[in-house]
Amino acid sequence: MLARGTRHHSYVGETKPAKFRSLSSKFSRFTVLLFCWVMMLIILWDVRSHTFDIAKAVTMGLIVALVGGVISRFTMGALARPLALLQQGITSVREGKFEPIQVSATHDEIEYLGESFNQMIVEIKASQEEVRQHRELLEDRIRQRTEDLEKAMRTALAASQAKSEFLANMSHELRTPMNGLLGMLEVVLDSPLATDQRDELEIAQRSAYALLALLNDILDLSKIEAGKMMIEAIPYDVRTVLEDCVKSFQARATQKKIALHFEVDPQAPSKVIGDPLRVRQIAANLLSNALKFTDRGWVCLRLAGIAEDSRPAGISIAVSDTGAGIDPDKLAAIFEKFTQADGSITRKYGGTGLGLAISKRLVEMQGGQIHVDSKVGNGSTFSVTLPWSPVSEPIALSLAPRTPQSLESASHSPVYVLLVEDNLINQKVVQAILRKKGYRIDVANDGRDALAKLEAQGDAYNIVLMDVQMPVLDGLETTRIIRKDRRWDRLPIVAMTAHAMNGDRERCLQAGMNSYVSKPVQPAHLVSVIENLLNEWSHTPPPPPVTELDRGLADRLMLEESGMANDLLEVFLQLAPERLQFMEAAASASDGSKLTAEARKIADAADQLASRALGECAQRIELAALSRDFPAALQELETLRRGIQELAALAV
Ligand code: ADP
């Protein structure tokens, strides 16, 4: 603390203040002044007493100058130099250099001050060294701990990743025996049984289904965590998907005496681009929860459109119920995996606490959000918002399964099925189901085997049941090859996919399959799918037996009959090469949006020309572009080019 009235200067660096006077000069000046004053007194005294002597005055002047010089030298040596050294020392300390100063042996306070200063430097240096050592020790420890933590984290992450990958890869292996178990249970339950045997088997069946649901949840979550979950972007009808989903819960709702509604806002879109299976999975999970936690009242799924600046921006899917509701404290946690809001309630209803965690991730993977509003005793509303990608009508229509080829013998001889399935258990299950119906079955163990069998006796089969995931040649690729061959391009193919619940129904249809059933195969469903297809088949008028060229001719004739001007065709044919080139470039550069736009133009032009073959081909290109399947688009482009060439040849 500074004493009151004390002036305090802060001298930074070596720069001295303007009024700085060294102590030695002050002391010398004072002494000289004192001597001058004494000398003046002596001279005045001499003048008064008339004894003034000039020589005496000069001698005294010299003595004063001499004494002043001596005193100045003395103060320089004794005061100024040691103080200057001290000052230098302080300056170096301020600059971070802790060096002792040179102390003059003046044997007084100044020497003591210098020694104290040096002592202080030594102590500061020692404590600094101590601090440095402590800091180094601490840094070492932190570094070590960080390394340990990082190592532990890497190990944990690798373990978690390995676990997720293992589970994701095991998916097929785990589901296959489950499918065998469930399929065989269905087959046995479909035969005459004693009542108690039926009851026991039904318990086994319910347990197996519960286990399958749990397995599917765990596998889905692992797939998401292992980064292996793919979200598709394909055109689909969101209203139909949700309506189907709500319908599939009707039986459960009726059983619980709960009203189940499906409401569609008039502004809600119908055709959108997205992943229909994931959207269905999310809706199914919310509906399943709503029905599970509601004992009376109603459950409602509402589809609405979301607008931003009066332009459509998204869709909202909200599932409301009049059920138990959720405690506000638990609201945030229910989206965590393995978390359930109320243990006692959940024990009553069952569940794993995975459904909402999976739904949330699926929603986020599609760029959307999920939100819940709930009051205990007053029900809950789970709302999902998803970005909206509209799609024009014809593309979605082109997703409709192909019309199978006509079959005259369908009603006479037994249905002959080619079953393409690599797994022995699944083969046995499907064979057992179909034999009961009196079908004949031939089995191919993979895609290549199936193609060989088709080559050998392709005309004999009425329908193909195609597993999707197979070694050598998978179901999708096999179907594409079959569809390219004109002999079988209308042969009905039904996909049997374990993915159907969690995967790619649309991809199967896109590859050219007519329908699909999900595994575990339910006998009644499989038979009804086959029968429906065969029925459709026998009622479909056989297509005119035309070659690709003939079809072009038929198109041409239609064009002339319809009175369309030849100019239209001429313009179309003139522009076609450029359009084709443009589309090829877009497909090669994987530019989906350009390719879609171009294919749409061709499809519209083909419509105007009444050329169904070209129109369908352009739509397939558009579809391939939308799902970013560019190799398929390039293949279709080749077909389009040939079609246009044929049309050009006819136009000459
Ligand atoms: P699970 O239903 O298998 O337990 P979920 O992740 O689907 O797992 O749901 C987590 C928890 O959220 C449920 O256990 C339940 O406590 C609560 N919950 C979800 N939906 C509802 C609902 N509609 N009404 C009341 N509680 C719900």
Structural description of this entry:
By secondary structure, the chain is of the alpha/beta class. 59% of the residues lie in helices and 12% in strands. The strands form three sheets. A five-stranded mixed beta sheet has the order 2-4-5-7-6. A five-stranded parallel beta sheet has the order 9-8-10-11-12, sandwiched between helices. Strands 1-3 form a two-stranded antiparallel ribbon. The radius of gyration is 47 Å and the shape is elongated. Adenosine-5'-diphosphate (ADP) is lined by residues 289-290, 293, 321, 323-324, 326, 334, 340-342, 346, 351-357, 380.
Q: Largest sheet, described in full?
A: 5 strands, mixed
Task: Note the total helix count.
Answer: 20
User: Can you give the helix content as a percent range?
Assistant: 55-70%
Cα radius of gyration in angstroms: 47 Å
**Distance linking N and C termini:** 111 Å
- What bound compounds does this protein have? adenosine-5'-diphosphate
Q: Helix- and strand-based class?
A: alpha/beta
Unreliable spans: 1-13, 392-411, 541-565
The strand line-up of the biggest sheet is 2-4-5-7-6
Question: What is the global morphology?
Answer: elongated
Mean pLDDT: 79
| Number of strand elements | 12
Give the DSSP E fraction (strand runs of 2 or more residues): 5-15%
Give a brief description:
The chain has helices at residues 23-48, 54-94, 109-189, 195-225, 238-248, 250-256, 276-292, 343-349, 355-365, 393-397, 424-436, 447-457, 475-484, 505-511, 523-539, 548-561, 566-588, 592-608, 612-626, 630-651; strands spanning 234-237, 259-264, 271-274, 298-308, 311-321, 369-375, 379-387, 416-420, 440-444, 463-467, 493-497, 515-518. With 652 residues, the protein is α/β, with parallel strands linked by helices.
